[in-house]
Design a protein that fits this description.
- It contains ten helices and ten strands.
- By secondary structure, it is of the alpha/beta class.
- A hairpin with a 2-residue loop joins strand 9 and strand 10 (211-216).
- The longest helix has 16 residues, at 167-182.
- The radius of gyration is 17 Å and the shape is globular.
- It binds adenosine-5'-triphosphate.
- The site of adenosine-5'-triphosphate has 11 residues, from strand 2 and helix 1.
- It holds the Pfam family ABC_tran.
- InterPro entries: AAA+_ATPase, ABC_transporter-like_ATP-bd, ABC_transporter-like_CS, BCAA_Transport_ATP-bd_LivF, P-loop_NTPase.
């Protein structure tokens, strides 16, 4: 579904991703893990069209989208849940969700998509009229994911959805991500919570210093001593 070909991304002179090549299959849940500063956020922001690569290509469903404007990435079926959620705190939950469906095709199906989002996150139903800034961290993360789903993406990019949430809420969040995946949406999940991310993912990529250093099925990656030591502390 998505192919990255020799992608290099830099902030000024400082390279953050070096010659990355990888693919995401249709319907797959791929997690990207790695230490702080590895380039995970840079990767998803590039896939969302927010950052422009210095070189390389991004091919979505057979089409080269590398040089498209950011909003065209949405039209191409890609939605990002950014790190830190980036909600409009003073606007209501309903308004935040509506913003996600700004494209005409998504707007037409707004009611139906909202029902699906509320089925996934029933706790949001009673909070629709509340300012998003008044919600708990977990509920705000639900709104951020809901807003991205309102665009009816075929590829969902999640940047650290579990960050700052309590363990119980993290479990619920991973369940919800698994449900979205089971519903047929392809997902790229960036996570610090490696063991949880590996548990729900079909495939994993390990990024270090802007390069992919390992890739494979989670169960097999988790058997490798260097990965266990670096990411699980065992
Ligand atoms: P974290 O988990 O800490 O968010 P990450 O794996 O997502 O880490 P990135 O945030 O993508 O890593 O950062 C990759 C590299 O790019 C780091 O060396 C970082 O210092 C650098 N970097 C990130 N954002 C910028 C920026 N806006 N300007 C300059 N350098 C940046």
């Amino acid at each position: 579904m998505l192919e990255l070909q020799q992608l290099t991304v830099a902030y000024g002179q400082a390279r953050a991703l070096w010659d990355i090549s990888m693919h995401v299959k249709q319907g797959e849940l791929l997690c990207v893990v790695g230490p702080n500063g590895a380039g995970k956020t840079t990767l998803v922001n590039t896939l969302a069209g927010i950052l422009r690569p210095v070189s390389g290509r991004i091919v979505m469903e057979g089409r080269d989208i590398t040089r498209l404007a950011p909003h065209r990435f949405c039209e191409a079926g890609i939605a990002l849940v950014p790190e830190g959620r980036r909600l409009f705190a003073g606007m209501t939950v309903a308004e935040n969700l509506d913003i996600g469906s700004f494209l005409p095709a998504a707007k037409k199906r707004r009611r139906e998509t909202l029902d699906e989002v509320l089925q996934l996150f029933p706790a949001l139903k009673a909070r629709l009229p509340a300012p998003a800034g008044e919600l708990s961290g977990g509920q705000q993360q639900m709104v951020a994911i809901g807003r991205a789903l309102m665009a009816r993406p075929r590829l969902l990019l999640l940047d650290e959805p579990s960050l700052g949430l309590s363990p119980i809420v993290v479990g619920d969040m991973f369940d919800a991500i698994r449900k979205v995946s089971a519903g047929g949406i392809t997902i790229v999940l960036v996570e610090q919570n490696v063991s949880m991310a590996m548990r729900i993912s079909h495939r994993a990529c390990v990024l270090e210093l802007g390069r992919i250093v390992a890739e494979g099925v989670p169960e097999e990656l988790m058997k490798r001593p260097e990965i266990r030591q670096a990411y699980l502390g065992v």
